[in-house]
Amino acid sequence: MGIVYEGFDPFIERTVAIKTIQKSMIDKSEAHEILGRFRREAQAAGRLTHPNIVSVYEYGEDGDVAFIAMEFIVGIELKEHFDKTTRFQISDSAQIMTQLLGALDYSHTRGVVHRDIKPSNILITKDGQVKIADFGIAKIESSDLTQVGTVLGTPSYMSPEQFMGQTVDRRSDIYSAGVILYQFLTGERPFTGSNMTMIMHKVMHQEPTPTGELNPDLPEALHKVVEKAMAKRPEDRFQTAAEFIKALKAAVESVATAAASSEVTLEILNSAKSLHKKGIGQSLIADFNMEDFEARLKEVQQEADRKSGMANFDEQPDNSLREINQEFLRLSPAKKDEMTVVAKPATNTSTLQRTQSGAGESGLLAGLAREAKERVVSKQAILKASQAKAGGVGEALNRIVNFFNPFIRHANNVEPTINRVYRYDARTVYANLKWKDATIESRKQSLSDTALTDHVTFSVNLCAPEPVLLKRPWGPLETLKKELHHLRLRVIDDLETANKKPKQEWLEAQLAPDFPMQVRFQGNYNESNIDVMCRNLEAFGIAAYKLAPDDVTPAFLDDFGLFLLGRSDKLPAQLRRV
Fold first, then answer.
1. Is 468 helix (H, G, I), strand (E, B) or coil?
2. Topology (CATH level 3) of domain 3-71
3. In what order do the strands lie in the sheet with 65-71?
4. How far is CA 265 from CA 268, 286, 307, 317, 428, in A?
5. Domain 76-256 in this protein, CATH class
6. Burial class (CB in 10 A: 0-12, 13-18, 19+), 44
7. Do residues 68 and 17 lie in contact, with contact meaning Cβ atoms separated by under 8 Å?
8. Ramachandran bin of 68, using left for φ above 0, alpha for ψ from -120 to 50, beta for the remaining angles
9. What is the rounded CA–CA span in Å between residue 427 and residue 482?
10. What pLDDT digit, counting tens, does each position of 476-523 carry?
11. Catalytic entry in 105, 116, 514, 559
12. Residues 6 or more apart from 448 whose CB is under 8 A from it?
């Protein structure tokens, strides 16, 4: 019903999306409804300011055109992921659902019910941020734009009360979000049909196929969350999006616990199979070569035979090895945390203790048990050290967050001048830069309260007093575009048009005066350090550094902050270039 343009706001200096409708092109019988929805979208979304909702900046009408200027989003509709049958990990699905529900909770508390939550209205950016769009049929509690009896929405995601034309509230959005969660977990929509009547009948009178039947690996806890969210009666659902988030978080944590348990069980079973193949019965304590074991056993037996007057090892009963295995199981430690340890016995049999009485087996077995126990202690010590290092990385990232939150709040108020000069080339220079709109974003590795921090990202826009002239010799246009995009430098002029002009000595174009400076602190828990990725930090371009957790001290953070503010020309010495 219209065209969406990519535009540029020259006053605020930002890229925007401009959604337009040409009134004369609308059928007169539908004009009132369509324009009403268009204005409602601006009114509903315009009163909401949330990181997971597309921002609306302005609504206006100019002659035959009605328009909405809104936030420009580079992302992919969730519908495209579903159409490509992309299978999301449970943790990724939970991250997306948590952002979606957080935005809905914010919207609901401000009196706006979306009423058309569906995958095509959910954008996902390349860094995983969710953006809810299209409030065209939203219900605003203080308005009477939509009367009872009007059926609006998208059939497969509509709640039963929407089909019945009843007054809807926040619980209708919760139902639609439950349908999306169902699709995340199973890869299918719960209700489908060749026409709206068929879908409506299923939504109102049938229960969806249980998620466990479509995805047998799905735990019961998540099925119950979906079941409650999609209850036929609104009073049986989650009453708020916050309640939905809490239940989803608890279910995901139970999945993580179950997964950890299954991994331990699988490791134990694999160890058991390995030992069984080697003829060691069902012992899970040690994994060693069978020939080596029999050679040691024979040596000990022969020693016992000489002392007891027995002929030789070959005359022993056929079940002697089975009896020794039973003795091995009886004498070995039975602690649960020792059952997955892999230990190899020493090759020097003189290190094994031998008894002076009986057949001598207990000396061998006691020695093996002792070696296995020592290996367990060693493994536990290594594990504790590894956990301590991981905790050090997490604590360092938390210190970074705790520093940057008040730092950017104060710096945004001060708006300091950055004295550094950034050169794209010899003729394209950014100077006298002002600090603008700094942000800090951090994310954990999972939804758990105890989860370690995954990364912390600092961003700030640096703004020159006026647009900067790009002047360079003619060359491949696509190469130039890629360079500018890599550095996040925006062109005000149309490069395609400039390229079509009669060739002169130089290609000239105006660049926007602002560009981003970004620093990402990524927790590297495998190497027990922090990977630091920077864009346009000291100069234009990408740079990578390493940072030890112990280096993240108040002095380091102060030095780094002074550099960001332009009050120091040197990066902290703790940053080691990769």
1. strand
2. Phosphorylase Kinase; domain 1 (3.30.200)
3. 3-9, 14-22, 65-71, 56-62
4. 5, 17, 44, 36, 62
5. mainly alpha
6. buried
7. no
8. beta
9. 19
10. 777 888 888 888 898 887 776 766 665 566 778 889 999 999 999 998
11. 116
12. 253, 256
Tokens 């002029």 correspond to what residue?
Answer: 493
Query: Using one digit for the tens of pLDDT, what is the confidence trace for 137-164?
Result: 666 554 433 333 344 567 889 999 988 8
CA-to-CA distance for 35 and 46, rounded, in angstroms?
Answer: 16
Q: Is 116 a catalytic residue?
A: yes
Sign of the alpha-carbon dihedral angle for 338, 344, 350, 351:
negative
pLDDT tens-digit profile of 389-403? Answer: 556 888 899 999 999
Domain ranges across the chain: 3-71, 76-256, 272-379, 391-577
Burial of 19 (0-12, 13-18, 19+ CB in 10 A): buried
Two tokens, residue 350: 């003189």
76-256 has the same fold as 3-71: no
Among all chains, which residue has been given the structure tokens 């079509």?
500
Round to whole Å and give the CA distance between 210 and 214. 7
| C-beta separation of 131 from 123 below 8 A | yes
230 touches 219 (CB < 8 A):
no
What are the beta bridge partners of residue 20? 3, 67
| Whole-angstrom distance, CA of residue 367 vs CA of residue 97 | 55
